[in-house]
């Protein structure tokens, strides 16, 4: 079977790219199509696979400023010659599904999210832009929403990475989606039951992720917090650093892994489409104190049964709510067990992802063949 995998761009190797990694284990013969590939990503993660680029990669400064070419990406995707493939899998949270396939081919879109800057986060991006960018964004995003809606009709079946995203797909595209959670590299983390006296905040330090609220809550309570991550808020958060609230910035994986294993709990204040970091914490035997919205509702278990509980939720993105949730966590009659956390994380291991994706695609291929005219 001839297989093509289309991913929006390869500039880092995070959750979306790890989905591609597992797809390539299922379909090692697949050809990979994308707009832009960073040289080190191709060398370290895509070696041995045929990688083909759209014309976006040849435009000036594309390696660094690829997102500025967003309006041209739908056209670039249509220029790809996918006519010889039996199965096309597009990986979407940027432009990827607008490809033109053979009428008999099966096109499955694994959707991490409809494009955030076009749909649900459009207003946030608009409010944070300069006057000239705002002036250009309005007609440009209108055009992108039209193109994105139209491209959804080219997909035979949508897979969403969470029920939260399945609802967003229904809202944006008026299409149903099957939920298959993305893979989590559980075996890369070690479970630790002996916790140290600090909490951990891990992730991108951008305004919508609400890291500043967590820092302010811990400054107010006097509890210990370690912050790992980078982003536009890093410099501001650094000015608030104390002997109890440490802002480490970006750290190598072994440091990240060590802090995940030793933290008393991970504090997760943002709304994520799925959220792999909470599961990485649970794989390390570490409970999660999460904002009760988005993908965290599908991974963190709040329960009075200590054999299944993996954390708890707060329901307002505020300093007071975070402080109250941490205090409630510390007053639990029975501590959240490392074993329950690890057991929950193992439900999202890569083997489970490969099995579910393979079963889904095989079933759809069989349906297509059985309905084809003789």
Walk me through this protein's architecture.
By secondary structure, this protein is of the alpha/beta class. It has two domains: 3-183 and 349-368, Rossmann fold (3-Layer(aba) Sandwich); 186-346, Rossmann fold. It is 39% helix and 15% strand. The chain contains 14 helices and 13 strands. Strands 3-2-1-4-5-6-7 form a seven-stranded parallel beta sheet, with helices on both faces. Strands 10-9-8-11-12-13 form a six-stranded parallel beta sheet, sandwiched between helices. Helix 1 (15-26) links the parallel strand 1 and strand 2 (31-34). It is globular, with a radius of gyration of 22 Å.
Average pLDDT works out at: 93
Helix content: 25-40%
The top level CATH class name of the largest domain = Alpha Beta
The topology string of helices and strands comes to EHEHEHHEEHHEHEEHEHEHEHEEHHH
Q: Work out the radius of gyration.
A: 22 Å
What is the count of β-strands? 13
Distance N terminus to C terminus? 20 Å
Number of domains: 2
Structural class: alpha/beta
CATH topology descriptor of the largest domain: Rossmann fold
Sheet-strand content, in percent, reads 5-15%
Could you describe the largest sheet, including whether it forms a barrel?
7 strands, parallel
Can you list the strand order of the major beta sheet? Answer: 3-2-1-4-5-6-7
**Any guess at the CATH architecture of the largest domain?**
3-Layer(aba) Sandwich
Number of helices: 14
Q: Low-confidence runs (pLDDT<50, min 5 residues)?
A: none
CATH superfamily descriptor of the largest domain? Glycogen Phosphorylase B
Shape: globular
